[in-house]
Amino acid sequence: MKAANLDYERAPPPGVVFGCLMPAPWLGAAAGLLLAFGSVDGLPDRFAPLALAAVHVLALGMLLPVMLGALFQMMPVVAGVTVPGAGWMAPLVALSGGGSALALSAGFLGGSAAAFRWAALLGAPFLVLAGLLLLGAGRRVAAVDATTRTLAWIGAPLLLTALCGGVLAGLFGGLWPASPAPLLALHIAWGLGGWLAALVTGVATTVLPMFWQTSRLPARLERWLPLAHWVPLLAFTVAVVAWPRSTALSQWTLLPWLVVAAVVAGFGLAGTLKAKRRHDPVWPLWPVACASMLAAALLAAAMPFVPDSRAPLAWWIGSLALIGGGVLPVTAMLGKIVPFLVWLHLRKLLPPRARVPAMQAIIAPGRQRRQAMLLLAAYLMLLALPVAPAWLAPAGGLAFAAANLWLGVQLLTALRCMRRMRAQGGLPPRVPRPATLPVEGGRDG
């Protein structure tokens, strides 16, 4: 969809979107600090208590608020449909996500059943409600391209992920008996594949050509998005529910989705490497994100053929998918969308002739570039963590926390710029340069 087709007059008030986006980097920093100072016992096993705690702080505390905030913005601007209740939900997104992540961390690290019960109470009802409201809004979306088709049905994978997660939290909290293995498989598949990968793909088909001037995905591929994500995952769900004890069958039925993810990531990598705005400070995050999604899909497809269960494939797959496929593109989009929203709202709030700062003046490009490089360095350290967990968990966690704190400061700088411009009515008027008078030379006589 071209930028000309976006209806910015329907954009929600600034507080709705910023209320979701602003807390996210600080909660991402909390995940890094948790990894830096927590006990590394069991790492890099994906079921190590510290790994489970950090993953949920990252997914619920950082990624979830940004993704919901993006939906609150894109639904009216891209699809012309307002999400009902977005105004009162926005301030609660980070509170609910962060609170449930904190409770889950206490449960994983301390073994407290009460903490899991609190997590189920704080997170699941709110996310189920958010999923239902998104589905309700999606019924009114005219699905004409990959982005609008994603917006129309994105509430469904959020709903499934939240329900499976809530049941698991209640199980660990002693509220009811259940078999954890199939619930865990569905929670991970729909959380990483149906929710995160599908939403990032659907949003990227609009924002990548708009902000970084990339080529679009092939028309035949884009025509099948997001169903190409969701239909294979539905087949996987049927296999898990019908044959919960057959791990091999579930692994094989996941292969079609992994092929889809690899194909989408491969075309995305080719497109971002040829982007016209490769000089943009956060551009490097996109090809790394696409390469990470591709690598995660290939490694996951290889898991049934790896006999040594001690190989850290699960750690690499999780890091590639959650950080590479989630944190990196989210950071890149925040670095472009927040300055753009500040500029957009200033244009709407100030008098027509008022001067507003350029996007590059709202957040300095040099700072964005250095923050992106720090984030990539942290990412590499976390990928290498299986080599020396005792050293790389603290180093990678601290670097990841520092990168997110820096991002949080940059977003606050953008918000302060917006408030300052509103208070003073825009930039001072340009001072015209004095005209240079020609020097007349006299002649003798």
Automatic annotation (TrEMBL):
The keyword Cell inner membrane does not apply. It comes from Cupriavidus necator (strain ATCC 17699 / DSM 428 / KCTC 22496 / NCIMB 10442 / H16 / Stanier 337) (Ralstonia eutropha). Keywords: Membrane, Plasmid, Transmembrane, Transmembrane helix. It comes from the Bacteria. The chain crosses the membrane at residues 16-38, 50-74, 86-109, 115-138, 150-176, 188-212, 224-243, 255-273, 285-307, 313-346, 372-392, 398-415. This is Transmembrane protein. The keyword Magnesium does not apply. Residues 426-445 are annotated as: Disordered.
